Structure formats: C-alpha cells, structure tokens
Amino acid sequence: MKTFILLFSAVIATTFVSCDKGDLEIKKMNRGDGTWTIESVRTEQYDSVGQSVINSNTVDNAGEFIFFRTGTLNALFDEHLLVVSMVDTSGTAVYTGGAYYDDNRVKVAATSPLDGVWTVDDNGRRKQQWSIYEVGTDGYLDRKMIMVLKKK
Amino acid sequence: MKKILSILLLSFMLPNAVKAQLEAIGYIEYGYSMFRYNSDELPVFLNSYNNYQPGLTQKFETKMPVATGDYLKFGVGIGANCKMILDFTVYKMKSGALEARFGNGTGRDIWFEHRCSNTDIGIRFGGTKEVKPWIQFDMNVAVQTTTIYSAYVYSDGSRSLGIEKTLNGVYSSFVFTGGIGVTGGYRIAGPLGVSVSGGYMFNGSRKHPEYYQFTDLNNVKPSMDPDYLPRDMATYIADPYNSGNAISNDFRGWKFTAGLVCSIGNW
User: Fold this and answer.
1) Which residue from A minimizes the CA distance to B166?
2) Domain with A126 in it: what CATH number?
3) How many pairs of residues across A and B have Cβ atoms under 8 Å apart?
4) Contacts of A134 in chain B (CB under 8 A)
5) pLDDT tens digit string along B202-249?
6) Are B170 and A104 inside 8 Å of each other by CB?
7) CB of A73 within 8 A of CB of A96?
8) Mean per-residue pLDDT for B139-157?
C-alpha cells in the first residue's frame, strides 16, 4: 500500500509539473539570481539579396541580463521583469522592461538595443545562443545578430 | 463499451478465482517511444503552401514524419495470475522536419512535438515469480499536446522562429484522446525486465475541429497578428483575421514503445 501511495503521488506530481510547462521554462532563466552574462554579440550585415555577409563584427562581454521571477504588467502575455545592462566604451547603460521566454523564442522588451523576438538556437541551462533576423521590405535578409549567453 | 468492460472484468476475475492469493505490484518504466501519426488537416496547409509559392524548387511532402522520443511510466497492479493494472505515462516525442526550399536555399521547415499524459487501465497475464513473460491488454485516456514549429530557413541554414516572416511560430493544440494497446514483457533478473508495446491513439476532436485549432498565443507577436496556420494561403494573405481558415489538431495514429522496467516491491 505504501508503494502504491508513493507511486500515485509521483504520478500526480509529474502530471502537474508537465502541465505547468510555461512556468518551468522561464525558471531556467531566473533560477539563482537570474543573471546571465552576454559573452558575445556578433552582427552580420548581408548583401542586397540576403545571401552573403558583407560586413560583420563581434563584441565580447557586451553586458548582462537579469531575469526576475516577478511578472510585469504584461503578465497576461507571460512577461517577467528583465534588466538589461550593456557595456561599451562610454560606460554601462541599464534598461528595464519585460521578457517572455518559452525555450524556443525570447521576446526582449526593455527599450534596449537588444529588443526584439530572438530565436533560441541552444537552450542550455548554463549556456545559450540566441539569433535575431532583420529583413528588408523586399523580404531579403538585411542583418543577423547572434548572441551567446552564459549563466553567471 | 459495456461489453468490452464486462469481458475484461470476467477475464480478470476467472483466473484469480482459481488461485486467490492476491499480490500487489508496482513498477517504473523508461524507454524509447515512437508515434506514427496521420493528419488530414496539416496536408491541407502544406498543399496550399506548395501551390501558393510558385518559386519553390523543393515542395513540402505531405506524408507525416515519424516522431520519436522517450517515455516514463509509473504503474501499479493487483491480482494473482492475472492482474488489474493502472499506469500513468508521460511521453515526449519530436519529429524530423518537413522542408520546402526556394532556389537560393531559403525556405521553410516544419516539425512537430507531441507531449502526451496517458492513463492506462489493463489486464496483465503472467509476469509472476513462476512465469517470466507477460502480456497486457489495455485501454487508455490521454491528454495530448501537439506543437507545430514553423521556421523560416535562411540561405546559411539557420532557422528563425522570429516575427520577421509571416507563418513563423510555435503553434499548439491539446486534445483529450484515448486508445487501445497491447504490451508484452519479460522478467530478466531481479527487479529488472523489458517491455514492448503497440497501440492506436484515436482523436475524438475530429468531430469538432473548430475547438482544437493550432494557435500561437501572442506572447511574442504584436497582439493583433494572426496566430494560426491556415487551410488556404491565399485567404490568409487576403483576410488574415479569418480564424475559420485555421487548421485543427486531428493527429492520431500508432504509438510504439520499448523500455526497461524496474519493479518496486513484489513482481
């Protein structure tokens, strides 16, 4: 009987955990103090038909993201509080806003240079890679950014 | 249905009446799972996409790819030579991609993920201390979530789920479903055994597809963006807010598993 109760409890717990998938995903980002270092940001500029890279540059140690457990006013859209700090030669700029994260996509909405909907290429617990694409009015790829993040 | 239940109950009671020494069993099972599914709705979208994009050098195939993954099962049972079994299984399976390409290497990839929480009730014969093999017949009810990933592919091969291209998204729908199946197993040594199973998952939602449309909640999109995959691309472009043009979750098909069983307590 004890075995039965233990197994039954495990089943119920598993069912509830698997139902609450959305909450699990953002927990990957905000666990601990929720800080992720931006290890590098690579920007690629494409030619007029979006085929070849004509210019690229990489910025290392570009800043950090801090993901909070707290929801924003956009809680209906599963947004959680986010702080983005970006470092450049003139100092550190700090932006606050919200983030939605579902293991496949991240929406950064913090009025920062990194705002937009990123595709999560690698959704590791310690290291992640995100990409974002900009296309012109002709539909061709103009610019691509690849960002590598590391859990602090 | 009543007839089936009566037969199941009788076949459970008769062997146990001969040998009335009841025992309880518990087990955990983990292994490989495969879902060979069909859909009538998705090919409608794929064909429409193929016809709408005249520049495609490689069109979407409309044959559904197989999804594979793993599963975790917890089970309990009670009986003698024949046991009544109740088990719960969580499956997660992902398919390979269906691909459409233009001449310059860009195009669209579509792939699927199936998450299923399954409750089986069944009857098991064998699997005792004396009889190592067992066979189990079961019926199940399940909550099945199917997710369609629709990504634009750039010429360097990278996939984008971002909002810069129409149709990009992660579209989900869950259905209450059920099925029947049969499992065979064998005790290897100590608490360990192996099992294989096969079964068919039905999809009752096909009667009311309007309740089970695939949607991508507007968590990443501007809130008025269309959030569905269309039945007809031309209508989608001309009238994007016509959600009656959306495809629904009618995925159903054969599910197979092979796994390792570890008993808890008695066999």
Assistant:
1) A139
2) 2.40.128
3) 85
4) 164
5) 987 766 777 788 988 778 887 778 889 999 999 999 999 887 899 999
6) yes
7) no
8) 94
Measured over the CA atoms of residue B17, residue B18, residue B22 and residue B27, the dihedral's sign is: negative
For residue range B90-106, what is the model confidence (pLDDT) as tens digits?
999 999 999 999 999 99
C-alpha to C-alpha distance for B16 and B13, rounded to whole angstroms = 5
Answer whether A60 touches B (CB < 8 Å).
Answer: no
In order of their start, the domains of chain B are 2-264 (2.40.160.20)
Q: What's the confidence (pLDDT) of residue A2?
A: 58
Look at chain A and report how many structural domains it folds into.
1
Reported confidence tier of residue A20, pLDDT bands at 50, 70, 90: very low
Interface of B with A in 74-113 (CB under 8 A): 74-76, 88, 90, 104, 106
Average pLDDT, chain B: 89
A15–B162 CB contact, under 8 Å:
no
Strand partners for B197: B183, B257
CA-wise closest residue to B66 among B38, B31, B32, B108: B38
| Chain A residues whose beta carbon lies within 8 Å of the beta carbon of residue B221 | 117
Residue A67: give the domain boundaries: 2-151
